[in-house]
Amino acid sequence: LPLDPNHHLAEKAERLMEENLMLKDNYQRYAALTKREMELLRYIASGEKAGEISKRIHISEKTLNTHRRNIKRKIGARTHYDIIKFAQAFNLV
């Protein structure tokens, strides 16, 4: 269904299509995350500080940083923004 490019829905439709492609392209990466990594990804993407997360789940900040590094590697993220986009696409935040 063609949309007028000047219509506000055109931008939204484009974003939805891009997100759908991102989901398809990254589903294997998402599936490779452990349950614990998904939990931590949710906290990290929601903006919680390392100290808050480590206290909440009873691990050291060093262990949390190791998990964060593994998550970034598994999902192919380079920045915190990449982590947030990934988590949002998979409804973790």
Describe this structure in words.
There is one protein chain. The chain is mainly α and 93 residues long. Helix content is 74%, strand content 0%. Helix 2 packs across helix 4, helix 2 crosses helix 5 and helix 3 crosses helix 4. It is elongated and about 55 Å long. It starts with 7 loop residues before the first helix and ends with a helix. 17% of the residues are buried. The model has no long low-confidence stretch (mean pLDDT 88).
What is the beta-strand fraction? under 5%
Describe the oligomeric state of these chains in a short phrase. Answer: single chain
User: In percent, how helical is the residue content?
Assistant: over 70%
Shape estimate = elongated
| Radius of gyration, CA atoms, in whole angstroms | 16 Å
Q: Please give the largest β-sheet.
A: none
> What is the residue-averaged pLDDT?
88
Low-pLDDT ranges: none
What order do the SSEs take from the amino end to the carboxyl end, as H and E? HHHHH
Q: Briefly note the structural class of the backbone.
A: mainly alpha
Ends distance: 30 Å
The count of helical stretches stands at 5
Number of strands: 0
